[in-house]
Specification:
10% strand; globular; two-stranded antiparallel sheet; alpha/beta; 8-stranded mixed sheet
């Protein structure tokens, strides 16, 4: 039996979600905004994100118009950063980079991107042209689906910390408010779905929430917006790696799109993601799958959650009502819908939580994770002077023997290393401080990995805490809040429960739900 925190309003959710999955969605206009602000920020993983989504659209939405704005567009320039294989870099250069402490961007190489069918560069000019074009072509009932896989920054507006930024090519910037301005150029009745994965992506939830009023009367004409975001407005996101093997790709959208596609990037099929048992995977269920399974620092957000935080900025206590994160866990489970229930139980199991007061328990887990992370930071800071001293000692010995190394940019250095690279490498490894340097390097890596583990555990605790808060806020909103606020929340949840697919009547679509 499906559980719902929305009570009888679940009927309205089902009706609206079904309508959005039905004939109201006449056409899909899909846009990918991808790439970094420059080649230094356009990692290979971003390219893989764009290609994975491109394949998904081709499979699941074959009739959609899909435009891609990616990095430098169709320029032959080397715009993608990737990491060279460890064995491809000579030992001499690797050791010199270490002792001269020039390891930033070490081992990075660059090539032109391999994203087929790119419309143009990811610039403000091209984005504006795309919206102008689609604003003319898309009609009421059509859907615009926008996926951003890029970098982002915090707000530059001190009075509005949620007006965060999406970085485009050539270090151009797009604010959440300016993005909402683009969305507002679409015809009345055009539906919008956003999936954004840049750092501080949650600020762009305002582009959906600040759109046209979500009155029930708009159902016939459409014009509704929802969105899914890798993280909140005040946090970084995971997922930008130059590694070519893809083993480190645990960011939000990898899980989100895999759930909708039915298989991961490795091609392995996934069990059906269908928490409510209705025979399909909704956008909300794909989001829940990422919340449960993404092994990253991401704390994902969707528009209905952002809306609850907007009307209850201080949590459940912002609204008069009987519900809080400290009410008995079984009561929280009774209020949760199917997706929330799956996430609550899975995250609780992963964090090994079992108390009745799950809110208190998860707050304790979060506090311990922060404390442990800070301890790692303190230990890393304490190791820094020792590491610097060892490097400095080895550098001094090298420069005494090979004075050309005093300036690593000297034209003679490349020739020197080409001729005597192995001798130089042997001298580094034979130095009395090299063993200490290697030990310090190993310890720094261990602490960095441990810190990352604590960060991921903190992120998981925050995902669970947000779910507890959402259930409690929704309960207080339903029982004692504004009916207008409640109605809008119900609509947002329904929007999020729509399918990626354009129609229920398409026989091919029925096979892949």
């Amino acid at each position: 039996m499906r559980r719902t925190c929305l009570g009888c309003a679940g009927i309205a959710i089902g009706m609206l979600a079904a309508a959005l999955d039905g004939s109201a969605l006449a056409r899909d206009f899909v846009l990918t905004i991808g790439g970094g602000y420059s080649p230094l920020g356009n990692q290979a993983s971003i390219e893989r994100n764009a290609n994975f989504f491109r394949e998904l659209v081709a499979e699941r939405l074959p009739e959609a118009r899909h435009d891609i704005l990616f990095s430098d567009g169709n320029s032959p320039g080397r715009d993608v950063q990737y990491r060279a294989a460890p064995g491809s870099i000579p030992r001499s250069w690797r050791l010199l980079a270490q002792v001269f402490q020039q390891e930033k961007n070490w081992g990075m190489r660059y090539r032109s991107h391999a994203v087929p069918g790119v419309r143009g560069a990811a610039t403000l000019e091209n984005l504006s042209a795309w919206f102008k074009d689609v604003a003319q072509a898309a009609a009421a009932g059509d859907r615009v689906l926008i996926y951003a896989t890029a970098h982002g920054g915090g707000s530059t507006n001190k009075s509005d910390p949620q007006d965060t930024t999406l970085y485009l090519w050539n270090s151009q910037k797009l604010s959440a408010k300016d993005f909402e301005g683009y969305l507002s150029t679409l015809k009345p009745g055009v539906n919008v779905v956003l999936v954004m994965t840049q750092c501080h992506a949650g600020g762009f939830a305002s582009a959906a929430l600040d759109g046209p009023p979500m009155e029930m009367a708009t159902l016939d004409g459409g014009g509704l917006r929802c969105g899914f975001f890798s993280t909140s407005f005040d946090r970084p996101a995971a997922g930008c790696t130059p590694d070519v093997d893809g083993d480190n790709e645990h960011e939000y959208s990898s899980y989100f799109w895999a759930a909708l596609r039915g298989r991961g990037r490795d091609g392995e099929p996934l069990p059906p993601v269908d928490y409510d048992g209705d025979g399909r995977t909704s956008l909300a269920e794909a989001h829940t799958f990422a919340v449960i399974h993404a092994q990253s620092i991401d704390i994902p957000l969707r528009t209905s959650e952002a809306y609850l935080k907007r009307i209850a900025p201080f949590g459940a206590s912002s609204l008069v009502g009987p519900f809080s994160i400290h009410m008995p866990y079984e009561r929280i489970r009774e209020r949760a819908d199917a997706g929330q229930l799956a996430a609550l139980d899975n995250l609780s199991a992963e964090l090994q939580l079992a108390s009745v007061d799950r809110g208190r328990e998860v707050l304790e887990v979060a506090a311990r994770a922060i404390e442990s992370r800070d301890q790692c930071d303190a230990q890393l800071k304490a190791l820094a002077p020792q590491y610097e001293r060892a490097c400095k000692s080895i550098r001094a010995a090298l420069v005494n023997r090979w004075p050309e190394l005093a300036n690593p940019w000297s034209a003679e250095v490349a020739e020197l290393v080409a001729d005597e690279g192995e001798v130089i490498a042997d001298a580094i490894e034979a130095h009395r401080d090299f063993a200490d340097l290697r030990t310090l390097q190993t310890e720094r890596k261990r602490l960095a990995d441990e810190r990352w583990t604590h960060d991921r555990r903190y992120a998981k605790s925050q995902r669970l805490l947000r779910l507890l808060e959402d259930v409690a806020i929704a309960g207080n909103l339903q029982t004692g809040g504004s009916s207008e606020h409640w109605q809008r929340y119900v609509q947002l949840v329904a929007l999020e429960n729509q399918s990626l697919l354009p129609t229920m009547s398409n026989p091919a679509a029925a096979e892949i739900r």
